[in-house]
Amino acid sequence: MPESVKLIIPTDAPSDRADKVLAVCLKGTHSRSALAKLIRLGLVRVHGTAVKPSTVLNPGDCVELLAEEISPSPAISGIPDFSILFEDSHIIVVNKPPGLVVHPGAGRPGNTLMDALVADRPQMLQVGEEGRWGVVHRLDRDTSGVMVLAKTSLAHESLSAQFRAHSVHRIYLALVRGNPGQDSGRIEVAIGRHPKDRKRISTVTTKARHAATKWRVLTRLGPLTLLEVMPETGRTHQIRVHLASIGLPVAGDPVYGKIRKKGGIDDPKLKAALRTLHRQALHAAVLGLKHPEDKQYVEFSSPLPDDIQAILDLQFSHEECPG
């Protein structure tokens, strides 16, 4: 049976609506959305009577929050191994491998990164949005690299605010097909859902959203180039769509990186290596943010995974140009 939480409204608290008073008294342990859901389900009671959001709470009132019965996560099996880069009582930072979905969704009811984390950390349940417990940002299934998740409501609010403000420092490494004429650039093109294929994002759309991406060359490797990419916004598939839009599709990208008939790759060894990649060669290498507790800047990094590094090693015989 889930445990309940009992609370006496402090004597210095003003009389006000239940949802407002509880949001202040329970800040850091229960998010506003979690409290609203408990009230809606009749699981918040004062002196034994269920309250409404508009119910006025007064100093000295005894409030009981009955824990919601949460169905256990689906059995976790067969997910790719991932490593934990950092963990404390507020956040957990992981190095996500390709092939691992971040949270449940259409076509993926379980066996996600979120499922694996909450299975060992039940305190993450009810942190954030239902079914996306602890999630404040995401990486595509086949994009690897650094991710942060929240373990408390306070951390969730802080991290979410930083991502909304675009103040999080993010650096990606992208192995792209092509050789740009410049050593750096900035792409500012609005993107949105493709008008005919809803699973694709496109620069041609009826509902465009502002998006901007900076990039610079790290290494030129013949028909391939390793880029450092810094997204200024965080739209779905933004980096993949933006790079493809300037003729530099991410190598291995099955959606936005189709091989062109002209100007393709002739080296049979390189072609064979790219066929073994089985995903877009995009890696979230650096993530920097303010820690939710002390507001100090912290930064986490992850080296290129073996599958992308193997292709670089194969091509190091080509001329290298410093970024």
Automatic annotation (TrEMBL):
Residues forming coiled coils: none
Reactions the enzyme catalyzes: a uridine in RNA = a pseudouridine in RNA
Residues at the active site: D140
Every Pseudouridine synthase RsuA/RluA-like domain range: 90-245
GO BP terms in the entry: enzyme-directed rRNA pseudouridine synthesis
Pfam families reported for this sequence: PseudoU_synth_2
Keyword set includes Cell inner membrane: no
Keyword vocabulary terms for this entry: Isomerase, RNA-binding
InterPro entries reported for this sequence: PsdUridine_synth_cat_dom_sf, PsdUridine_synth_RluA-like_CS, PsdUridine_synth_RluC/D, PsdUridine_synth_RsuA/RluA, RluA_PseudoU_synthase, S4_RNA-bd_sf
GO molecular function, one term: catalytic activity, acting on RNA
Highest taxon in the source lineage: Bacteria
EC number: 5.4.99.-
Family affiliation: Belongs to the pseudouridine synthase RluA family.
Function: Responsible for synthesis of pseudouridine from uracil.
Protein name: Pseudouridine synthase
Taxonomic source organism: Desulfomonile tiedjei (strain ATCC 49306 / DSM 6799 / DCB-1)
